[in-house]
Model the fold of this input.
Amino acid sequence: MATRGVRDGPWTDLDAELVGRATRDAARLARESARHSPGTVVLGRPLAELEALMAELGEPRYRAAQLRTAVLSGARALEEVATLPRALRARLREAGVRTGRSRVHGRRQAADGTIKLLLQLADGRVVESVGIPSRDGRRLTACVSSQVGCPMRCTFCATGKGGFARNLLPHEIVDQVLAVGEAVHASPDGPRRVSHVVFMGMGEPLLNLPSVVEALRLLREELGLGGRALTLSTVGVPGALRQLAARRLQATLAVSLHAPTQELRERIVPSARAYPLDALMHDCDRYFAYDWVKGCRVVWL
Done:
């Protein structure tokens, strides 16, 4: 169950414990994901693991590529993978294999073409994703969530008022990008390709670093998005920027300051008490100094 909603008042030890819970949850999910049997979730699985799964079932290797391509092309359930024989689909279901795609629980579209999606995860929880097309129709930005809820208690953000439930898995993040592309159509012929992804939806991405880093890898390798097309937004998590730098991740870093002084920032972003503005700016400078970050930016919001 999610924790209680946002409380008024200063950042406390209880808040710090909730943030610690999110970090521990991220590490636990990463360990459990590594222990899962190959092919349990198709989305995000390496092709070699899917091929191994097919071999166990006595099927030719090319069936793995057919399955993977179908899921990336919009198949939300095994029943929709028309390239696989019906008998094989039934055996995959019996083996506990699922696509990893979430159900579209709700959809709203604004006059400018922006679309908000509510996606229902396998455990029944719901996250928000937004598709933002450019006016000229050349770009489509997917704004994705990294957590169900958020423990950071920023006063301007509605997400934290519902409390924190859990971190998202890598495939649950990538699925949002696919869903946005399927929801925003450039023409009646098919889904429009997402050109940019911003982690500015529900949750604090740097509290779910293992899943976020793996999702970014999948976005690059599976969907062909470059580092300049990927943006991580954060209000600042102590130590997280150093961890991010150690992973040599190429993505634009958007740091949400929201105030020019530490005193004002603590009122707007209570967690700033645990991460003073001077320390945050120092870590941003160190992150930007890495040679491999060149070509990507650090921006302040």
Remarks:
- The two ends are 32 Å apart (CA to CA).
- The chain is about 35% helix and 20% strand.
